[in-house]
Amino acid sequence: MQRSRRWFLRASAFWSSAAIACRGRSGAPPAEPRSIGAPISAYGARSRFEKGARFVNRNTKAPLEEAASQTPLHDTFGIITPSSLHFERHHSGVPEIDPAAHRLTIHGLVDRPLVLTVDELKRLPSISRIHFLECSGNSSSEWRGGSSGSDVQRIHGLTSCGEWTGVSAALLLRECGVHADAAWVLAEGADAGKHDRSIPMQKMMDDALVVYGQNGEPLRPEQGYPLRLLLPGWEGNANVKWLRRLKVTDQAAMTREETSKYTDLMPDGTARQFTFVMEPKSVITQPSGGDRLPVAGVYEVTGIAWSGRGAIARVEITTDGGATWAAADLQTPVLPRAHTRFRWLWKWDGRDAVIASRCTDETGYTQPPLGELIARRGTNSFYHNNGIQAWRVAPDGTITNGNRA
Amino acid sequence: MAIARSRFTICVAIAALVLACRATLSASPERSGSPQSPTFGVGRAPTAAELRAIDIDVAPDGRGLPSGRGTAAAGKDVYARRCETCHGPTGREGPQDVLVGGLGSLSTPNPQKTVGSYWPYATTLWDYIRRAMPFDHPGTLTTDEIYAATAYVLFMNGIVGEHDEVNQQTLPLVTMPNRSGFVADPRPDIPVKRKP
């Protein structure tokens, strides 16, 4: 309820504060207190008035250690997701790891297997890059029509974006001397279930990072403290957290997570495997499902776009269900494999409308309608839905999930 | 005289301390052995014991499987004690992942992705049980219990016989029903018109 009224409350808060200002000293206490404030503190916390939080669905049969929480995309600005609000997906809970005791072992088809401490990794040349991370199960609810009452957080909140700092995986592998027949690297975590995925050597030698930093401070435990693999633009599951081991091999390990899970089932019963890249996608975050526009008039439509294949080149907005499209403004910086903020001014006439965004990336790929993906992949593939998200605006201003026909 | 003696004592003490430190450092694996990384001089070689402890993955050809054995007959008891609560009495009931059945369902509107209907390699089952099962106590099954539980799940799916011995030689030879069910990533699978 609080969410759905936000738009209205914001508008009414403006008018009531204006009214108080006119009344002068009488009424509510001043907005700017004259008493002395709080002292300095060692580690900051947000205002107690802010309540934005990850969505934790407690109403499932799966244990919360084997679950996902979603980023409140509606309530975040710009392109950086605060570390505290970065989405989570764990397969056996968040381990507590002492960084002084943690080791990264690189072995297998190499001349010089290495055991590295976290401090040693921090001594190596560091790289900081802004990249999105998206779970390939993000937006999976929509393959079969979704729920009209759902919102951008619950549908699309398994994507987040941060600045990651670490060491080039290629540098580490070169230090080990990779053999000519090496084709894959098995990445394994130190969590209870020892989560593991096989990564093609080509990606490891291209832009993969072994990261220890997130948004200027050490990784959060939920994001893999003290070390995680970061594969820019690739599905979240392969970005192994709590990284303890990289094993260079000649073949994929065919782990449970790359066979029975994270494979995309097609209508003919075959399944696509090693579908790593997250394809171009965008979503309007404001106004979106659960909002209510208080009056007809001008609104800024804003949202995020991202592509696992590179930079976003263009974002377009429709307000008539896809009949016509207009170019949105891209907010700089526009970075490859990162969330890109878009904005567009809309004059809502107070009538029924279906609003949506679609993006095109630097490869020329334009985000398709969900129906186009379903025509090719059916509705059993679960993963990798990058279709267009529609929001339905009713004459009373309420907004619902427009993917549901 | 007193000063000289105490100075000598201090020197001996320092020398002993240095020797003790060097002994401690060389005994610690962090200092044992080269090679270090050639460009940056960081890291050290893992010891054989360290690698044995963490090199746990099992490849589809069986590399990484330890010696040991189990049958479905023996696995029935392991399953009942350690698996049934989450996967159901016959592996079909849940509440967690369904392990049994679903053959022929993958191309229907309600596919059932089970070990029997979907998993391409039997070695993956062994690897995953050792790696991550039981969910709340991973790493507590013995090697023979893992072989037995693997055999029992395969038996419930009609893939091995009740008394077939599953071991490091036989497991990689098990052919899973959906072995050829996986294809490479063809994306982009929609037309990409032109560069913007």
Structure description:
The complex is a heterodimer of chains A (405) and B (196). With 405 residues, chain A is α+β, with helices and mostly antiparallel strands. Chain A has two domains: 89-147 and 159-269, Sulfite Oxidase, Chain A, domain 2; 281-401, Immunoglobulin-like, CATH 2.60.40.650. Chain A contains six helices and 24 strands. Chain B is mainly α. Chain B has two domains: 2-53, no CATH class; 60-173, Orthogonal Bundle (Cytochrome Bc1 Complex, Chain D, domain 2), CATH 1.10.760.10. Helices cover 37% and strands 3% of the residues of chain B. Chain B contains six helices and three strands; from the N terminus they run ααβααααββ. Chain B has a two-stranded antiparallel ribbon with strand order 1-2. At the A-B interface, β5, α2, α4, β13 and β15 of A face α2, α5 and β3 of B.
Largest sheet entry of chain B: 2 strands, antiparallel
Shape of chain A: globular
Q: Provide the structure class of chain B.
A: mainly alpha
As a percent range, the share of helical residues of chain B equals 25-40%
Going by CATH, what is the homologous superfamily of the largest domain in chain B?
Cytochrome c-like domain
Multimeric organization: heterodimer
What would the average pLDDT of chain B be, to the nearest integer? 88
**Tally of contiguous helical segments of chain A:** 6
CATH architecture of the largest domain in chain A: Alpha-Beta Complex
Shape of chain B: globular
Could you say how many structural domains of chain A there are in total? 2
Strand order in the largest sheet of chain B:
1-2
The level 1 CATH classification of the largest domain in chain B is Mainly Alpha
Lateral arrangement of strands in the main beta sheet of chain A: 5-4-13-8-9
* N-to-C span of chain B: 90 Å
Strand content of chain B: under 5%
Name of the top-level CATH class of the largest domain in chain A: Alpha Beta
